[in-house]
Amino acid sequence: MTVYFIGAGPGAADLITVRGARTLASCGVCLYAGSLVPRELLAECPPDARLVDTARLDLDTITAELVRAHGEGHDVARLHSGDPSVFSAVAEQMRRLDAAGVPYEVVPGVPAFAAAAAALKRELTVPTVGQTVILTRVAQQATPMPEGEDLATLGRSGALLVLHLAARYADRVVEELLPHYGADCPAAVVAMASRPEELVLRGTLADIAARVKEAGVVRTAVIIVGRTLAATQFRDSHLYSADRERHDC
């Protein structure tokens, strides 16, 4: 039997992948984060599936549920919001399953930053303006950042930054990025991306923190900072250029 870590997507139930939905429909047990995963997705589970909300469970209890289901001969769906590859706490669960000898697979999902870019109707990489996207977060008391990954250091690159789990620290984000990006640098915050209650805030580093406070955004949001957010004057890419040689192959 196998544990499947499934990316549930950023919020809208129909943004789960086809593979994710099919896998979910084949599992006799489903563990999901009730505070983040849309309940509509649970309709994809078999009618007799055991559903476990992990919102109030600790890591030991979650691991015990996964191991128990495996021991009972069930495939297990472990639903995570967004995509398991970033800020999902999947690595620590995989480590424990490795120790317990329980096999697992990963089914990717639509990440929050992709849903935010869609809401903003922007490509985050634009020719001659910006070709690098940094996904990061800010240091918190419980989880400090590794050395060299603080915003002041990352900001020196001038690359577009996408900050997860940082909305409540918008003032600090602005303070650390201003010296590198300037007050006129475009910034945006997308909360509840892809959900009916989606909220999009646009501005610059000069005013984005105030907009976040005014809107009362403190969670389930990404902050995006970088010049590509407002770029209009840029060279077309070589991909579709008339000057590019094309061969039938």
Automatic annotation (TrEMBL):
Pathway: Cofactor biosynthesis; adenosylcobalamin biosynthesis. Keywords: Cobalamin biosynthesis, Methyltransferase, S-adenosyl-L-methionine, Transferase. InterPro entries: 4pyrrol_Mease, 4pyrrol_Methylase_sf, 4pyrrole_Mease_sub1, 4pyrrole_Mease_sub2, Cbl_synth_CobM/CibF, Siro_Cobalamin_biosynth, Uropor_MeTrfase_CS. Residues 2-208 form the Tetrapyrrole methylase domain. Signal peptide: none annotated. Pfam families: TP_methylase (PF00590). Belongs to the precorrin methyltransferase family. This is Precorrin-4 C(11)-methyltransferase. It comes from Streptomyces sanyensis.
